[in-house]
Amino acid sequence: MERIPILKMGDSLLVSIQVDMHDRLAMTLQEDLTNRIAETRARGVLIDISALEIVDSFIGRMLANIAGMASVLDASTVVVGMRPAVAITLVELGLSLPGVRTALNVEKGMELIGRNGNSRAH
Amino acid sequence: MPTGEWTAGDFIRRHSDTLLPNWVRHQRDSTSLRRDLISDRDLEQQSKQFLSLLPEAMRNGHTPDVNGPEWNSVRELLAEISQTRARLGFSPSETATFVFSLKQPIFEALRRDLKTDPERLAIETWNTTMLLDQLGLYTTEVHRKGRDEVIARQQEEMLELSTPVVKLWEGILALPLIGTLDSARTQIVMENLLQMIVETGAGIAIIDITGVPTVDTLVAQHLLKTVAAARLMGAECIISGIRPQIAQTIVHLGVELQDVVTKATLADAFAVALERLNLTVASRRAGVA
Q1: Nearest CA to CA, how far is B128 from chain A (Å)?
Q2: Within an 8 Å CB–CB cutoff, is residue B197 touching chain A?
């Protein structure tokens, strides 16, 4: 079965969505990611959706759900690289993802996670 | 009285020498001719062309159906005249008078020609009226179409003019909005802004609404949508240029702008943006000292 790889970098997890998301794949990712967060005790999750061209309300809600689940497991989620068309679609759908933090690209996203991790360590 | 089959087309061709000067005179005397906008030479030229095309079209089609193919050349000429006059600033009725003023000279000539046949005279007068009415209405239609095109083009130009996204500093974009925000404009503004965020990698965008005359719930909602979309991409928005009246309106309407940073002037917003990027503006003299 098709799966989206979850990479571990230090104490954060990196997910890069390179294929079109369909509902089953989204559910699998949600399950895999929560398991990996619990296993690795990751503090941050970075989801790169720069290759994602089409979103619907289900995928939008899935992103919000992942962020919610991660925060329950004490990890912060950053969504990076959202395309303009995707952002407009989500806003029009009424999904402005209030609990999710965002960044323009992976670099800035990692910075955001790093800053968060440091503040927590202190 | 001519012998053989009497046709309107032949009639006009035979009388065109007298019809033309009469018609031009009628047009000149008419109060609705804009002498300030069109020269006598152009007027005569147009009248002459119309009179030469008219018999040709009438010979082919017996019934006055001006939408038929035999009327193509006449319609083309009228369309050209209408469009030129629309651009010159003629009103629709002033344009239609060009055709309607032909009635009197033709009727006069008809009366002379068909003196002996009153019944025929009545029929031909009616036919001519019908025909010229249709042609007159056609000019009005084309005139309106020409105006509509002008309006549509201007709207398009306004849209292009009014949505620039400028780069204030490395990582800071500004979007000075001018004019009322409606759904169509918001869409374009949003797309332009998000595209620029992608291209420049800017983390902060300042939306300046000094030039927006009124902010109602709909405009506020559009602004909030833009802010939310920019946030989803990872850029922060600051709304600036909120005038005192607009601040009052926003509160009276109960619009929630709590999640958005708002500032009174673009300068204040820029200061906030610099602070976010850990930058300061310092006086040179102070630096030397």
Answers
A1: 59
A2: yes
**B84 domain-assigned:** yes
| Contact flag A87-B230 (C-beta cutoff 8 Å) | yes
Rounded Cα gap, residues B120 and A41, in angstroms? 104
pTM over 0.90: no
ipTM of this complex: 0.81
Q: What is the pLDDT of residues A11-66, one digit of tens each?
A: 899 999 988 888 899 999 999 999 999 999 899 999 999 998 888 889 888 889 99
Assigned domain for A70 exists: yes
Same domain, B129 and B196: no
Q: Is B258 on the interface with A (CB under 8 A)?
A: no
Strands A12-16 and A44-48: parallel
Distances (CA, A) of A120 to A76, A117, B257, B262: 11, 5, 30, 30
Is residue A111 one of the residues assigned to a domain?
Answer: yes
B185 and B150 fall within a common domain: no
Largest CA distance in chain B: 111
- Helix pair A57-72, A23-40: axis angle to 10 deg: 10
Tokens encoding B64:
């006055």
